[in-house]
Amino acid sequence: MTLLRDEDLAAAFDHAARGYDALVAANPGYHAHLRRSARRLGLPRRGGGLRVLDLGCGTGASTAALAAVLPGARITGVDASAGMLERAAAKAWPDGVTFVRAPAEGLAEAGVEGPFDAVFAAYLFRNVSDPDAVLAAVRELLAPGGRLGVHEYTLGGRRADRAVWTLVCRGIVQPTATAFGDAGLYRHLWRSVVEFDTAGRFAGRLRAAGFEAVRALPLPGWQTGITHTFVGRRPRTESEDQG
């Protein structure tokens, strides 16, 4: 199968929205790992007075992680899927959490404007057609010194990492997703990971996009070597950027 992109991918997520929360709840550590990645942003004052963009928020799991770690922040969740966003918006949220429907490539057209103190993106970049263009847009939305956190399936590069990922997808995820009628989306999930950057390559992509202090941090449990947190920062001055 070819990878799902743009409108086709958004439509697949629309259909999957009804069973999405139940499926991810079966993933050991899913929500705890998102909270860990949110903490790795290293934002001060529990987010007090800060603006945070949750790019590709889905049904709100990443938004909930940010709200738990940064209760003082104003959080804007953005997603291209109307079905996923409807599920997210229907949940109970603290003041300061809002949602906007927009593709990652069309934030300005949807009225999403910076500066943000941080951008967080979970399970997003391997799903966009042009990750470098999205990274450039994200960089412009960040305030100078603003932080980027990416939580993504990025294989570590060992054969064992791909083998474990394939085993989990074919033995657990895809049979469960088929029962919900979403087999195509989760076949895309498997392939999108094995065809995307390794962790080292994605860290290099962030540096090439102009982010500094980039780090790739593993996550524990069965996802070690499969899922990573990436953190980086927009330089504070133009001279830093050029240096």
From TrEMBL:
Coiled coil: none annotated. Residues 52-146 form the Methyltransferase domain. Keywords: Methyltransferase, Transferase, Ubiquinone. One of its GO terms (biological process) is antibiotic biosynthetic process. GO terms for molecular function: methyltransferase activity. It holds the Pfam family Methyltransf_25. The keyword Transferase applies. This is Ubiquinone biosynthesis methyltransferase UbiE.
